[in-house]
Protein backbone atom coordinates (compact mmCIF):
# COMPACT_ATOMS: atom_id res chain seq x y z
CA UNK A 1 0.00 0.00 0.00
CA UNK A 2 1.19 3.52 -0.77
CA UNK A 3 1.83 5.66 2.31
CA UNK A 4 -0.50 8.42 1.08
CA UNK A 5 -2.58 9.32 -1.96
CA UNK A 6 0.19 11.73 -3.02
CA UNK A 7 2.32 8.71 -3.85
CA UNK A 8 -0.31 7.11 -6.09
CA UNK A 9 0.17 7.91 -9.80
CA UNK A 10 -2.60 10.15 -11.21
CA UNK A 11 -3.51 7.59 -13.90
CA UNK A 12 -4.10 4.95 -11.22
CA UNK A 13 -6.28 7.32 -9.19
CA UNK A 14 -8.28 8.36 -12.25
CA UNK A 15 -8.83 4.80 -13.44
CA UNK A 16 -10.01 3.81 -9.94
CA UNK A 17 -12.39 6.81 -9.76
CA UNK A 18 -13.77 5.95 -13.22
CA UNK A 19 -14.13 2.29 -12.23
CA UNK A 20 -16.08 3.24 -9.09
CA UNK A 21 -18.33 5.59 -11.07
CA UNK A 22 -19.02 2.84 -13.62
CA UNK A 23 -19.67 0.32 -10.85
CA UNK A 24 -22.03 2.59 -8.91
CA UNK A 25 -24.68 2.26 -11.64
CA UNK A 26 -24.44 -1.56 -11.80
CA UNK A 27 -27.22 -3.56 -10.15
CA UNK A 28 -26.27 -5.81 -7.24
CA UNK A 29 -25.93 -9.47 -8.26
CA UNK A 30 -25.35 -12.65 -6.29
CA UNK A 31 -24.44 -15.40 -8.71
CA UNK A 32 -23.57 -19.09 -8.57
CA UNK A 33 -21.64 -20.71 -11.42
CA UNK A 34 -22.32 -24.44 -11.76
CA UNK A 35 -20.85 -26.79 -14.32
CA UNK A 36 -18.59 -29.80 -14.65
CA UNK A 37 -14.80 -29.34 -14.79
CA UNK A 38 -13.81 -27.84 -18.14
CA UNK A 39 -17.23 -26.30 -18.86
CA UNK A 40 -15.79 -22.76 -19.05
CA UNK A 41 -16.58 -21.32 -15.61
CA UNK A 42 -12.94 -20.27 -15.16
CA UNK A 43 -12.95 -18.43 -18.50
CA UNK A 44 -16.21 -16.56 -17.88
CA UNK A 45 -15.93 -15.68 -14.18
CA UNK A 46 -13.21 -12.96 -14.55
CA UNK A 47 -15.27 -11.38 -17.37
CA UNK A 48 -18.46 -11.40 -15.28
CA UNK A 49 -16.54 -10.14 -12.22
CA UNK A 50 -15.17 -7.10 -14.12
CA UNK A 51 -18.37 -6.35 -16.07
CA UNK A 52 -20.62 -6.32 -12.98
CA UNK A 53 -18.06 -5.20 -10.33
CA UNK A 54 -18.51 -8.37 -8.28
CA UNK A 55 -16.08 -10.24 -6.06
CA UNK A 56 -15.11 -13.79 -6.99
CA UNK A 57 -15.47 -16.22 -4.11
CA UNK A 58 -13.65 -19.49 -4.81
CA UNK A 59 -14.12 -21.58 -1.68
CA UNK A 60 -10.75 -23.37 -1.90
CA UNK A 61 -8.88 -20.06 -2.12
CA UNK A 62 -10.94 -18.56 0.72
CA UNK A 63 -10.26 -21.52 2.99
CA UNK A 64 -6.52 -21.26 2.35
CA UNK A 65 -6.64 -17.47 2.96
CA UNK A 66 -8.60 -17.89 6.23
CA UNK A 67 -6.11 -20.53 7.43
CA UNK A 68 -3.14 -18.30 6.50
CA UNK A 69 -4.73 -15.25 8.20
CA UNK A 70 -5.45 -17.37 11.31
CA UNK A 71 -9.04 -16.09 11.54
CA UNK A 72 -11.19 -17.95 14.13
CA UNK A 73 -12.87 -19.89 11.32
CA UNK A 74 -9.50 -20.46 9.63
CA UNK A 75 -8.11 -21.99 12.85
CA UNK A 76 -11.11 -24.35 13.04
CA UNK A 77 -10.69 -25.28 9.36
CA UNK A 78 -6.98 -26.01 9.90
CA UNK A 79 -7.85 -28.35 12.80
CA UNK A 80 -10.22 -30.29 10.52
CA UNK A 81 -7.60 -30.48 7.75
CA UNK A 82 -4.88 -31.58 10.17
CA UNK A 83 -7.17 -34.36 11.39
CA UNK A 84 -7.72 -35.49 7.81
CA UNK A 85 -11.38 -34.46 7.95
CA UNK A 86 -13.44 -32.53 5.41
CA UNK A 87 -14.12 -28.94 6.43
CA UNK A 88 -17.77 -28.81 7.53
CA UNK A 89 -20.42 -27.10 5.41
CA UNK A 90 -21.21 -24.71 8.27
CA UNK A 91 -17.57 -23.65 8.43
CA UNK A 92 -17.40 -23.02 4.66
CA UNK A 93 -20.64 -21.02 4.76
CA UNK A 94 -19.18 -19.02 7.69
CA UNK A 95 -16.06 -18.24 5.65
CA UNK A 96 -18.25 -17.13 2.70
CA UNK A 97 -20.27 -14.96 5.11
CA UNK A 98 -17.02 -13.36 6.32
CA UNK A 99 -15.70 -12.80 2.80
CA UNK A 100 -18.95 -11.15 1.67
CA UNK A 101 -18.37 -8.30 4.14
CA UNK A 102 -15.33 -7.09 2.18
CA UNK A 103 -15.62 -3.79 0.29
CA UNK A 104 -14.96 -5.57 -3.02
CA UNK A 105 -18.17 -7.59 -2.46
CA UNK A 106 -20.44 -4.54 -2.05
CA UNK A 107 -22.13 -5.05 -5.43
CA UNK A 108 -22.43 -8.80 -4.93
CA UNK A 109 -20.43 -11.93 -5.66
CA UNK A 110 -19.77 -14.89 -7.92
CA UNK A 111 -19.64 -18.24 -6.13
CA UNK A 112 -17.65 -20.87 -7.97
CA UNK A 113 -17.14 -24.39 -6.59
CA UNK A 114 -19.86 -24.02 -3.96
CA UNK A 115 -22.51 -25.22 -3.28
CA UNK A 116 -21.64 -28.74 -4.45
CA UNK A 117 -24.55 -30.44 -2.67
CA UNK A 118 -28.20 -29.61 -1.94
CA UNK A 119 -27.42 -29.46 1.81
CA UNK A 120 -24.74 -26.82 1.12
CA UNK A 121 -27.22 -24.86 -1.05
CA UNK A 122 -29.77 -24.90 1.77
CA UNK A 123 -27.20 -23.68 4.31
CA UNK A 124 -26.06 -20.93 1.93
CA UNK A 125 -29.66 -19.79 1.41
CA UNK A 126 -30.25 -19.73 5.18
CA UNK A 127 -27.19 -17.55 5.71
CA UNK A 128 -28.20 -15.14 2.93
CA UNK A 129 -31.76 -14.99 4.23
CA UNK A 130 -30.48 -13.75 7.59
CA UNK A 131 -28.88 -10.85 5.70
CA UNK A 132 -32.06 -10.17 3.76
CA UNK A 133 -30.39 -11.36 0.55
CA UNK A 134 -30.77 -14.26 -1.88
CA UNK A 135 -29.14 -15.83 -4.93
CA UNK A 136 -30.21 -13.85 -8.00
CA UNK A 137 -29.09 -16.23 -10.72
CA UNK A 138 -27.51 -19.66 -11.11
CA UNK A 139 -25.58 -19.99 -14.37
CA UNK A 140 -25.65 -23.63 -15.43
CA UNK A 141 -22.74 -24.37 -17.81
CA UNK A 142 -24.45 -27.25 -19.63
CA UNK A 143 -22.14 -29.38 -21.79
CA UNK A 144 -21.81 -32.96 -22.98
CA UNK A 145 -19.25 -35.12 -21.13
CA UNK A 146 -17.59 -36.19 -24.40
CA UNK A 147 -16.58 -32.61 -25.26
CA UNK A 148 -14.93 -32.10 -21.89
CA UNK A 149 -12.02 -34.53 -22.23
CA UNK A 150 -10.44 -32.63 -25.13
CA UNK A 151 -10.97 -29.36 -23.28
CA UNK A 152 -9.53 -30.55 -19.98
CA UNK A 153 -6.37 -32.27 -21.18
CA UNK A 154 -5.24 -29.17 -23.15
CA UNK A 155 -5.93 -26.68 -20.36
CA UNK A 156 -3.23 -24.44 -18.84
CA UNK A 157 -3.74 -21.98 -15.97
CA UNK A 158 -2.09 -18.79 -14.73
CA UNK A 159 -2.06 -19.58 -10.98
CA UNK A 160 -2.28 -16.11 -9.41
CA UNK A 161 -5.08 -14.65 -11.60
CA UNK A 162 -6.95 -17.85 -12.52
CA UNK A 163 -6.78 -16.95 -16.25
CA UNK A 164 -7.09 -20.12 -18.28
CA UNK A 165 -5.79 -21.04 -21.73
CA UNK A 166 -6.07 -24.03 -24.03
CA UNK A 167 -3.45 -25.38 -26.41
CA UNK A 168 -6.09 -25.77 -29.15
CA UNK A 169 -9.04 -23.49 -28.41
CA UNK A 170 -7.45 -20.50 -26.66
CA UNK A 171 -3.66 -20.66 -26.87
CA UNK A 172 -1.54 -18.00 -25.14
CA UNK A 173 0.41 -15.65 -27.44
CA UNK A 174 3.62 -17.35 -26.29
CA UNK A 175 3.34 -21.08 -25.47
CA UNK A 176 3.43 -21.75 -21.72
CA UNK A 177 3.34 -18.05 -20.76
CA UNK A 178 0.53 -15.80 -19.46
CA UNK A 179 -0.45 -13.04 -21.95
CA UNK A 180 -0.76 -10.33 -19.28
CA UNK A 181 2.12 -10.92 -16.85
CA UNK A 182 4.53 -13.09 -18.85
CA UNK A 183 4.61 -15.54 -15.93
CA UNK A 184 4.69 -19.31 -16.57
CA UNK A 185 1.43 -21.25 -16.92
CA UNK A 186 0.83 -24.54 -15.12
CA UNK A 187 -1.21 -27.62 -15.89
CA UNK A 188 -3.26 -28.85 -12.94
CA UNK A 189 -2.39 -32.32 -11.71
CA UNK A 190 -6.04 -33.35 -12.02
CA UNK A 191 -6.39 -32.30 -15.67
CA UNK A 192 -6.15 -35.89 -16.96
CA UNK A 193 -8.76 -38.18 -18.56
CA UNK A 194 -8.76 -40.57 -15.55
CA UNK A 195 -9.27 -37.84 -12.95
CA UNK A 196 -11.87 -36.17 -15.16
CA UNK A 197 -14.00 -39.33 -15.21
CA UNK A 198 -14.16 -39.55 -11.41
CA UNK A 199 -14.84 -35.80 -11.11
CA UNK A 200 -17.66 -36.04 -13.65
CA UNK A 201 -19.17 -38.96 -11.75
CA UNK A 202 -19.10 -36.86 -8.56
CA UNK A 203 -20.56 -33.86 -10.40
CA UNK A 204 -23.51 -35.84 -11.80
CA UNK A 205 -24.17 -37.54 -8.47
CA UNK A 206 -23.78 -34.58 -6.06
CA UNK A 207 -24.02 -31.30 -7.93
CA UNK A 208 -26.66 -31.86 -10.62
CA UNK A 209 -29.34 -32.04 -7.87
CA UNK A 210 -28.26 -28.49 -6.87
CA UNK A 211 -29.36 -27.29 -10.33
CA UNK A 212 -32.77 -28.92 -9.75
CA UNK A 213 -32.95 -27.32 -6.28
CA UNK A 214 -32.45 -23.81 -7.71
CA UNK A 215 -34.68 -24.55 -10.74
CA UNK A 216 -37.64 -24.80 -8.37
CA UNK A 217 -36.82 -21.23 -7.27
CA UNK A 218 -36.84 -20.05 -10.89
CA UNK A 219 -33.28 -18.66 -10.88
CA UNK A 220 -31.41 -21.12 -13.15
CA UNK A 221 -30.24 -20.07 -16.62
CA UNK A 222 -28.74 -22.85 -18.74
CA UNK A 223 -25.91 -21.79 -21.07
CA UNK A 224 -24.70 -23.61 -24.19
CA UNK A 225 -21.25 -24.13 -22.69
CA UNK A 226 -19.97 -26.10 -25.71
CA UNK A 227 -19.96 -22.87 -27.77
CA UNK A 228 -16.81 -20.72 -28.25
CA UNK A 229 -16.05 -18.52 -25.19
CA UNK A 230 -17.15 -15.24 -26.86
CA UNK A 231 -20.57 -16.70 -27.69
CA UNK A 232 -20.95 -17.96 -24.11
CA UNK A 233 -20.02 -14.45 -22.86
CA UNK A 234 -22.83 -13.00 -25.03
CA UNK A 235 -25.26 -15.55 -23.59
CA UNK A 236 -24.19 -14.64 -20.03
CA UNK A 237 -24.71 -10.91 -20.74
CA UNK A 238 -28.18 -11.57 -22.17
CA UNK A 239 -29.13 -13.64 -19.14
CA UNK A 240 -27.80 -11.11 -16.62
CA UNK A 241 -29.39 -8.11 -18.32
CA UNK A 242 -32.89 -9.62 -18.19
Automatic annotation (TrEMBL):
Residues 155-190 form the Adenylate kinase active site lid domain. Monomer. Keywords: Kinase, Nucleotide-binding, Transferase. The keyword DNA-binding does not apply. This is adenylate kinase. NCBIfam families: adk, PRK00279.1-2, PRK00279.1-3. Its EC number is 2.7.4.3. GO terms for cellular component: cytoplasm; mitochondrion. Catalyzes the reversible transfer of the terminal phosphate group between ATP and AMP. Plays an important role in cellular energy homeostasis and in adenine nucleotide metabolism. One of its GO terms (molecular function) is ATP binding. Belongs to the adenylate kinase family. PANTHER family: NUCLEOTIDE KINASE. InterPro entries: Adenyl_kin_sub, Adenylat/UMP-CMP_kin, Adenylat_kinase_CS, Adenylate_kinase_lid-dom, P-loop_NTPase. It catalyses: AMP + ATP = 2 ADP. It comes from Solanum tuberosum. Pfam families: ADK, ADK_lid.
Amino acid sequence: MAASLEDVPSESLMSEVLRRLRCSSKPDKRLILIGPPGSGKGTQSPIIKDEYCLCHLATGDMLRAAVAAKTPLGIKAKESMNNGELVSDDLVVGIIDEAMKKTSCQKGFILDGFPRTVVQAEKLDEMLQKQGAKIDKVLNFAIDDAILEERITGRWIHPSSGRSYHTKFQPPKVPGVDDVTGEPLIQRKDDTAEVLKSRLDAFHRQTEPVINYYSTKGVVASLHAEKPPKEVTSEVKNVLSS
